[in-house]
Amino acid sequence: MSEEHNELAEPSTADSFENPGLGHHRPRLGDEDPRAAKRSERQVVALFTVSILATIGGIVGYFAFPVAEADAGNVRMSTLVLGLGLGLGMLGIGAAAVHWAKSLMNDHEKVEERHEQRGDDATRERAVEMLQEGVADSGIARRPVLKGALGTALALAPLSFVVPLVGNLGADWNVSKFRHTAWAGTPDGGPRYLATDPTDRRIKASDITRGSMVHVMPYRLPEEEHYLEEKAKAVVIVIRVDPSILKEPEERRGWSYDGIVAYSKVCTHVGCPVALYEQQTHHVLCPCHQSTFDITDQAKVVFGPAKRPLPQLPIAVDDEGYLYAQQDFDEPVGPSYWERER
C-alpha cells in the first residue's frame, strides 16, 4: 500500500471530528416566570425547615428518653429519635442544596480550556472574580428568607453530634468495671450457670449438638440498677466441636467440656456482637467489620481489624449435666482501652 494511501486512510483526529460546541440552552420555567422561581425558593426554604425541625426533634428526644436510666425502651427510643433527627437533618440540607442549584442558580454550561495548574496573577485574580460571581449568581443576597433558613439549618445540624457528646462528658468512665462480669459467681458464692436468653433456662451439655452455636447469659441475673450493663458484658457464645481439633494450651485444658467451649460475644475491636458461625472452618465472624476468630485455637484473630482473641469463659458440668462457669473470663471483655492489662 502506498504512503499516500496510508495518509488518506489514517486522517488525524482533528480533521475527522468537528467540535460540536455547546447545545442550545433551554431555559427553565423559573428563568422566565418569577412566580415559578419564587415557588422554588419556598420549596428550598421548606427543605431547610425540615432539617431544622428534625435536628431540634432529635435533641428533644435525647433528653426525653435518657439512656442513663438503663431502660431498654428508653435506649431504643433515644437511638431511634436521635438517628431520625440526624438523618433527616442532613438529608434536608442536602436536598435543599441540590434543589437550590438546579432551580435557582445559573444553569448555563461553560467551557474552560485546560491550562497549567498555577496560573499567572491575572488568572488568579480572575478566579477570585469568578468565585464572587458564583456567590452573586446563587442569589443568596437578594433572598433573605433563603439565607436565614440555610444559616439556621447549618448552625443547628452539628448539635445532633455535639449535644450527646457533651451530655456524656459526665458519664462514668471507670473502665475497671470491664475487668469483672456476673460470671464471677452468685451473691451467695455459688456457681453461675449458663442459661438461654431471654427464657433464662439452664442449659445442659447434652442440649448443645456438635457444630451448633448457642447464645447464653448468666442464669438468674438479678434485674438491679445496672442490669443491662452487666448483661451486655456477660453475653457469651457456646460452641461444640470435635474435641480432637481443639488447640488448648496446658493451662486451659480444663476450661472446656467434651468439645464445648465458651467465649465472650463482645468483639475485641469495637464491641459489636460476634454472632455468625461457619461450621466448616469453625470460625466466628463479627458482622460489623468482619473480624474473624478461630474457635478451635483459643478464638485467635484470623482476619479483620480486631487485635486480640475473644476472652474465654472456663466452663464445667455439675452432677446433673448443667453447664456452669468455673470462674470469670480470663481477661477483661470488649475492646482495648488505655488501662487494660492482660
UniProtKB/TrEMBL annotation:
One of its GO terms (molecular function) is oxidoreductase activity, acting on paired donors, with incorporation or reduction of molecular oxygen. The keyword Disulfide bond applies. Residues 28-37 have a biased composition (Basic and acidic residues). SUPFAM superfamilies: ISP domain (SSF50022). GO terms for cellular component: plasma membrane. InterPro entries: QcrA_N, Rieske_2Fe-2S, Rieske_2Fe-2S_sf, Rieske_Fe-S_prot, Rieske_Fe-S_prot_C. Pfam families: QcrA_N, Rieske. It is found in: Cell membrane. PROSITE patterns: RIESKE (PS51296). Residues 258-324 form the Rieske domain. Iron-sulfur subunit of the cytochrome bc1 complex, an essential component of the respiratory electron transport chain required for ATP synthesis. The bc1 complex catalyzes the oxidation of menaquinol and the reduction of cytochrome c in the respiratory chain. The bc1 complex operates through a Q-cycle mechanism that couples electron transfer to generation of the proton gradient that drives ATP synthesis. This is Cytochrome bc1 complex Rieske iron-sulfur subunit. It comes from Ruania alkalisoli.
